[in-house]
Amino acid sequence: MSFHLHNLHFSPTPATLAIGLIALVAVGVLCVLSWKRSPHPRRTALLEGLRFGCTLLVVLLLWKPEWLTILHPETKPRIAILWDASRSMETLDAEMPDILSPQRGVVSRTDWTRAALDSPLWDALEEGGKNELVDRSFGAPPSDPSAAAMAGTDLSTPIEDLLESETNLRAAVLLSDGDYNAGDPPVVAAQKMLQRGVPLFTIPVGSKKRLPDLDLLAVTAPAYGIVGENVQIPFTVRSSLDREVRTIARLRDDTGREKTKEIVLPPGETTFDAILWRLEKEGASTLELSIPVADGERIEANNSRKFTLSGRPESIKVLVIETLPRWEYRYLRNALSRDPGVELSCLLFHPQLGKGAGPDYIQDFPSKPEELSKYDVIFIGDVGVAPDQLTKEQCELLRGLVENQASGIVFMPGPQGNQFSLLDTALGDLIPVIYDEETRGGLHDPVAAPLTLTGEGRGSLLTMLADSEEANPDVWRSLPGFHWHAPVVKSKGGTEVLAVHANRRGRFGPVPLIVTKSAGNGKVLFMGIDSAWRWRRGVEDKYHYRFWGQVARWMSYQRNMASGQRVRLYFTPERPVPGDTVTFNANAFDKNGAPLQEGTVYVDATAPDGTKERVVLEKNDTAWGAYSGRLRISLPGEWQLKASIDEAGAEPVETKLLAQGAELEQTGQPARPEVLQEMARISRGRMISPEQLPDLIKEITALPEPRPIENRVPLWSHWATVVLLVVLLGVFWTGRKLNGAF
C-alpha cells in the first residue's frame, strides 16, 4: 500500500495504517476533552494542538515517509564502454578473431581491446541519433615507478563513478581480463547497476590458461652475512610450461663474480630451492639471481631479481656451561676459542675439582640481566639444577634472555643425565624434545651409528658442511658415527627435526637427535649426541669447526641485525613486499648497560620516496628492556631505519630494510572470465564472446528507454526528523509546566 502527496511518498502496511488512524482519533478526542476542562482554554488549545501535532508526526513516521524526486533526463540515452588499461592487459594471450581483424594470431590484451574499440560495429548503436556512445578507460598505471608498483585494478569504482556521472544510461559494456586486486568486490558495483536498471554486458579478454613461462617469484635473502662464511639464499620459481625443465640458477654480484646451481623445474609446479653464496668483503653488494629463458617461454622480464646483501665482521659472544670436561666439551671449546668471530666464556662445574680456571673461564654465573644480556649464544652441556650447578632463578634468567633478547640456547645433554632436572624449571618448555624417563643415562650403541638428515636438514644452513649443496649429502654419509645418544622419545610440536638416528626407531618413528625451534624472539637447538668431535677424523677441524661456527652465527643472526651500545634492533620479515607489516623488536639499555626500565624507544623510518614516519615502540612486560612496534610497508625499495632512545647522549642505531618490488599488477597471469560472468549475471546483462559482438549490438539496440532516476530520501530515518520530534516534545513538556500541569 502506498500513496503520494506531491513529492511525499508513504508506504504504510494495513496494520500500521489502522494503528495510526486509531491513535490519531484517540489522541484527538483526549485533546478536545482536555481543552474543554481547562481553566485556561487559549493556552490549553495551543498545547493540545502541539500534542496532536507530535502524535501526527509519530504516526506519519510509522508510515515510512520518503521525499521522492524524479529526475527526467534531458539528453539522449547513453551507452558506455569501459575498457581495462591496467598492466595485466599487456599479456600476450588474446586470440584475434576474424570479426575484428583479418590478420589472425595472438596479440596482447591491450591490442585486442583497441581493435574491438575501433570496430565499425559500434556505429550501429548511434544510427538515427537514438543513442550516444561514450568510452572510458580505467586502471592505467601512474607514471611514477614507485606508485606504479602499488597500483592495481579496481573493477568496482569505475562502474560506480559511471552511475554517478550519467543520468540517462541505457547499458554498459565492460572489456577486461577480469583480474582485480583493489577496491570493493566487483559484485558490489553490479548490484548498483541492478538497482538502476542498467544491464552490464561483459566481454572477457585473454586466456584462462597461464602463458608458458618461468617466473622467479621471490628471493628471500637475509639482510646480512658474515664475511668469509656462506649465506643461504632461498628462491622460488613457478613453471607454467608443459614439460620438465632442467636449467641453471645463476647468482652474480656487481663485480662479476658468480655462482651457479643446476635445478629441475617440474611442469606446472612451484619449486622452492636455495643457493649458497660466500661473502668475501664487508659492506653492501647488489646481487642478481636469474634463470635462462627456456624454449617456448613467452615472458622474459620475470626471470631475474636483484637484491642487496651486506657483509660484516662479527664478534659473537658465547657462554659454554658444563660439568665434566668430556671430549665433546673440549673440542667444542677449542673450536669456538679459535674462531676469530667468537668471543668465548666458559663456566665449568667440575664435581671433584670445582670450577674451572684459566683463559676464557669465568667463575660465577652472571647474576644480573645486564651481565647475562651480553651473550648471544648459551651452550648448556650435561648440567642441571643442583647445589653446585644451576639454580631455578638462573634458569629463569636464561629463558628471559632467549625469549626477550633474541639470544640462542643449545642443549647438549650427556651421560650423567643432569638435564632431566631442567624439566621442572623455566627451561623445561624450551627443550624441544621429550625425554625417556626410564633411561636417564642415555643409550649406548656398541657399533657406531650415523646421523641421517631429514628433508628440513638437507635444506638447512646449520647442516651445510660441504662447500656446495650437491656434495653435502656425501659429506654426511662419510662422517664417523656415534656410540651414545640422548634418551629421546620424540620431538615436541612446533619444532624442526634436522637429523635422526639412522638405525634406531621408537614408537613415534626415527629418534630425533638434532632439533631446532623458536622461543619468543630467540632460537633453540638440541644436540642429542656427544660425538661431533669424531667428525675430525681424516679431515681435522674442517667439518667440526664449520658446524659449530654455523650454529653460533645462525643463533645470533637476528640479535645482531643492528646493534649498538644502547639499543639493538631486529625486525621480521627481513624482505617484506609492499603491503606487508614489519614487526620491530628492540632491546634498550641504560648508560650502565642494564636493561632500560623507563624511557621511550622509537624507530624513525624513511621511505624510498623520502617520506618519514616515527614508530614509538611499546615496552614489553619484562625486566629485559624489550620493546616492540609495527610499520606497514607501502613502497618497494630501500627504507632507512634509525632506532633511538629518548635520552640525551644515547646514540641511535641505523640500518636498512629492503622492500622487494612485488607489483600488484603482473603480466602473464591467466584471465578471470568467471568474475565478469558473475557481474553480468547480477546486473541482468550477460557475458559474450568476441564472435557474438554483432548480437550484442542488436541486443543493446532493442533495450527499452532508460527509466527516470528516482532519488528517495527516507524521512522516517533521517536525523533531522528525530531532532524535530525531540524539540516539539521538549516545547510541549515545558508548556505544560508553565500552564500549571504536573
UniProtKB/TrEMBL annotation:
UniProt keywords (A-Z) are: Membrane, Transmembrane, Transmembrane helix
Q: Where are the transmembrane segments?
A: 15-33, 45-63, 716-735
- InterPro entries in the record, alphabetically? Class_I_gatase-like (IPR029062), vWFA_dom_sf (IPR036465)
Q: Which SUPFAM superfamilies match?
A: Class I glutamine amidotransferase-like, vWA-like
Q: Record keywords: Membrane included?
A: yes
| Superkingdom per UniProt | Bacteria
Gene3D superfamilies given in the database record = 3.40.50.880, von Willebrand factor, type A domain
The answer to keyword Metal-binding applying to this record is no
- Protein name in UniProt: VWA domain-containing protein
Which organism is the protein's source? Luteolibacter flavescens
